[in-house]
Amino acid sequence: MMLSCRKVKPFTVSTICYKDITDYKTWWPKYYKKTCQSSDEIKSKFTLSNYRQFTYDSSTPGYLITSDYIGGFVSQCFKLIKPKAMPTLPTNPAYSKTLPINIKKIDNLKKVLQYMSSEILEFYYHITSWETTNAECEATEAD
Q: Out of the domains of life, which is the source (predicted)?
């Protein structure tokens, strides 16, 4: 499904496939620190939930400037990149196949198919044929 939108600043909306999702989960620990301290004299620990504004400047890769408030006067700079790290974007896909959908969600989707317009019906009808899982039963069997 490809859609083009807005004449002033056009952009394209496309349906993604499981192959389009990149594996950042295993990529980032090679190049970035899990924890770090600010580079100022206070040496504050980087805690994501403490900040409301984040600024990244491509001229200083690996550094993140944070502020407690949006447009706040006080800011702190954190060096997140590991020493001598030269990150390249990941290319490995996150998944090797489509992920199964909970059977209850597929059942609910089948119930509402009758109310969908013909333009979108084919897309959602196709989803009902995807692989399913019963997450509650599988979790119980694992115990």
A: Eukaryota
